[in-house]
Design a protein that fits this description.
Elements lengths: L4 H20 L7 H5 L1 H11 L2 H10 L4 H16 L5 H33 L1 H20 L1 H4 L3 H28 L5 H22 L11 H6 L2 H10 L7 H7 L3 H12 L5 H13 L8 H6 L4 H16 L2 H14 L7 H26 L1 H24 L7 H18 L1 H12 L5 H30 L5 H17 L8 H12 L21
Helix pairs in contact: 1-15, 3-9, 3-10, 3-12, 4-9, 4-10, 5-6, 6-7, 6-9, 6-23, 7-9, 7-12, 9-10, 9-22, 9-23, 10-19, 10-22, 13-14, 17-22, 17-23, 17-24, 18-19, 18-21, 19-20, 19-21, 20-21, 20-24
Length: 522
C-alpha cells in the first residue's frame, strides 16, 4: 500500500466532488477558456515586475551617464563653491553603477527567507515597494539637489532585482506542469532580455534619455512594479508551496484548477504528495545547511559553477566593446545608440526562441551548446580585434562576433541557469539554493565590473582569454556532470544525483520504488 495513498484517496474524492460541482454549475470558477490561459497570464504578471526589472535597470543607467556626472559637479558647486576633480566625479559615478549589484546581493540574501515566510507570490508583491522607493528617490534627486539620493535609489532597485531574480523562477517552476516546466521558467530570461531592450529604447535621446528627462528615465522602473501590484494578486500562489510548506490541500487544489483549467489533476497531485512525503518533518534549510548536506553535494557544486560562470563568461562585458567596434565599422557616432538596441534584440530573440525548443532539446544540450559557441566566438573576436588595424573588413567581423556572442549566451546560459535551482533541489532546499546561486551571480557581476578595465589594459586585444577559458571549463563541466532534467519529476532528478552523492548507501535507503516511498535523501 502506498504511504501516500490515504491522502491521495482524499484528494481524489475532493477532485471528484469539485468536478461534480462544476458540472452542476455551483463552482464560481473562471470559464474554461480563461482558466486555460491563466498560466500564461500568471507568467506575464510575474515577469513584468520580476526579472524584467533586472534587465531594465541595467540598461537605463547607460543613457544619462554624462548628465549625471554633470549633475554631481553642479551639486558640488552649489554646496562647496568649487567643482570636483574629474577623478572624484568618476569615483562617485562608479559607486552609482556598482551599488546596483550590491543591492542585488542583498536582495538575493533576503529572497530565501521571504519566499519561506510570505510565499512566492506575496514576496513578489512586497518586493515592488523596494523599486517604488528607489524610483521616488532618483526621481526627486535633481529637485532635492542630492546625488546621494541616486545612490540610495539604485541600491533599492538592486534589492528589488535580487529578490525577483530568485523568486520569480522559483514561483513559475513550482506553478508549471512538468512537461512545460522548463519553457515556463525560462520566460524569466525572456523578460530580462525584454527589459534590456526596452531600457535601450526608452533611453534614446528622443524619448527619456535627454538632459531634461533623465530623472524620469531612472524613475520609470516604478511603472512595471505598479502593474504587477495591480494584476498579480488575481493569480494563485504556487501549488507546491501551498501543499508542502503550508499543508493547505484545499488551497493547492484550488490553485491547480485555476492554473490547469479542467485538466485531470490526479497524477500531478500524486507526484506532489510523494514529494511531500519525502520531505515530511524536514524544516526549510539555510544556505550553510546545504554545504553540510552530502545528499545535495553535486547539486550545490552545479549551482556554484554555473551561477558563477553566468557572469564570468563575459557577456555583459561584450557591451563594453560595442560602441568602439561599431564606431570602427564606420557607423556614425550619433547612430550607434540605435545599433546597440540590436544587441538587446538579439538576446530577446534567442531567449524567446529557446522557449520553443527547451522541452524538445533539453536543458543540457542548450547550455552546453551556448558555452561552446561563446568560446568559439571569443577566439574569433580576439583575432578580429588584433587585426582590426591591418585589414579593412575586420571591424565588421568584430561587430558580427558581438551579436553572435550575445546570441549564443541567450541560447542556454542566460535562462537555463535560473531554472536549475528549481529542478535540482526539493521544496525545503530550494530557497537556500537560490540564495547561494543569486549571491554568486551578483558577486561575480561586481567582480567583473571592477576587474574588466584592468583586464583590458593588461591583455588589450586578448582581454577575452579569461572569459573564453570560463566558457570552455563550463562546457566541460556540463558535459561530464550535469544530467538531463527534461520531463522528470523533482524526485527523479534527485535520484539521478543520488547516484553520485550517495554511492555508499544501500539501495533500500533511497526512493527506488514507484509504489513505496521508503525514505529519501533530498
Amino acid at each position: 500500500m502506498n504511504s501516500a495513498s490515504p491522502a491521495i484517496v482524499v484528494i481524489e474524492k475532493q477532485l471528484s466532488d469539485n468536478s461534480e460541482e462544476e458540472e452542476n454549475g455551483h463552482l464560481t470558477a473562471l470559464p474554461s477558456k480563461i482558466q486555460g490561459r491563466c498560466l500564461i497570464l500568471t507568467v506575464i504578471a510575474a515577469g513584468i515586475g520580476g526579472t524584467f526589472q533586472y534587465g531594465y535597470n541595467i540598461s537605463i543607467i547607460n543613457a544619462p551617464t554624462t548628465y549625471i556626472q554633470e549633475f554631481i559637479n553642479e551639486t558640488s558647486m552649489e554646496r562647496w563653491g568649487k567643482p570636483l576633480d574629474s577623478n572624484v566625479i568618476l569615483l562617485l559615478w562608479s559607486f552609482i553603477v556598482s551599488i546596483y549589484p550590491l543591492g542585488g546581493l542583498i536582495g538575493a540574501l533576503i529572497a530565501g527567507p521571504m519566499a519561506i515566510k510570505f510565499g512566492r507570490k506575496k514576496s513578489l508583491l512586497l518586493n515592488n515597494f523596494f523599486v517604488i522607493i528607489g524610483a521616488l528617490m532618483v526621481g526627486f534627486s535633481r529637485t532635492a539637489k542630492s546625488f546621494e539620493m541616486i545612490l540610495l535609489g539604485r541600491l533599492f532597485s538592486g534589492v528589488n532585482a535580487g529578490v525577483s531574480m530568485n523568486i520569480q523562477p522559483m514561483y513559475l517552476g513550482e506553478s508549471a506542469p512538468k512537461k512545460f516546466r522548463g519553457a515556463v521558467t525560462l520566460t524569466s530570461a525572456s523578460f530580462t532580455a525584454f527589459g534590456i531592450m526596452l531600457g535601450q529604447v526608452i533611453g534614446l535621446r528622443e524619448i527619456l534619455g535627454s538632459e531634461e528627462l533623465w530623472p524620469l528615465l531612472l524613475a520609470s522602473n516604478a511603472f512595471p512594479g505598479v502593474i504587477q501590484l495591480v494584476f498579480l494578486p488575481w493569480f494563485p500562489e504556487s501549488p507546491r508551496y501551498l501543499l508542502i510548506d503550508k499543508k493547505d490541500k484545499d488551497g493547492c487544489i484550488s490553485a491547480l484548477r485555476q492554473l490547469r483549467g479542467h485538466a485531470d489533476l490526479r497524477d500531478e497531485m500524486e507526484e506532489m504528495l510523494a514529494e511531500q512525503a519525502a520531505v515530511q518533518g524536514e524544516k526549510s534549510k539555510r544556505p550553510w545547511d546545504l554545504f553540510q548536506d552530502r545528499s545535495v553535494r553535486w547539486q550545490l557544486i552545479t549551482i556554484i559553477v554555473l551561477s558563477s560562470a553566468m557572469q564570468l563568461c563575459g557577456n555583459d562585458s561584450m557591451y563594453f566593446y560595442a560602441s568602439y567596434v561599431f564606431q570602427e565599422a564606420g557607423i556614425p557616432y550619433d547612430k550607434i545608440q540605435y545599433v546597440i538596441i540590436g544587441t538587446g534584440c538579439c538576446e530577446l530573440i534567442t531567449a524567446t526562441t529557446c522557449n520553443l525548443f527547451i522541452e524538445r532539446v533539453g536543458r543540457r544540450i542548450l547550455i552546453l551548446g551556448g558555452y561552446s559557441l561563446m568560446a568559439v566566438w571569443a577566439i574569433v573576436f580576439m583575432i578580429a580585434l588584433s587585426l582590426q588595424g591591418r585589414i579593412t573588413w575586420m571591424p565588421y567581423l568584430s561587430m558580427a562576433c558581438i551579436f553572435a556572442y550575445i546570441l549564443s549566451f541567450g541560447i542556454g546560459p542566460a535562462g537555463i541557469t535560473g531554472i536549475l535551482p528549481t529542478e535540482l533541489f526539493d521544496q525545503t532546499s530550494r530557497p537556500a539554493a537560490y540564495m547561494i546561486g543569486g549571491s554568486l551571480l551578483w558577486s561575480m557581476l561586481f567582480v567583473v565590473g571592477i576587474l574588466f578595465p584592468f583586464i583590458v589594459e593588461g591583455l588589450q586585444e586578448f582581454c577575452y582569454v579569461p572569459f573564453c577559458t570560463v566558457c570552455i571549463l563550463s562546457a566541460l563541466y556540463v558535459w561530464f556532470f550535469l544530467p538531463e532534467t527534461k520531463a522528470k519529476t523533482f524526485l527523479e532528478i534527485s535520484q539521478e544525483f543520488n547516484k553520485r552523492n550517495l554511492k555508499q548507501l544501500k539501495q533500500n535507503s533511497t526512493y527506488n520504488c514507484t509504489n513505496d516511498i521508503l525514505s529519501t535523501a533530498l
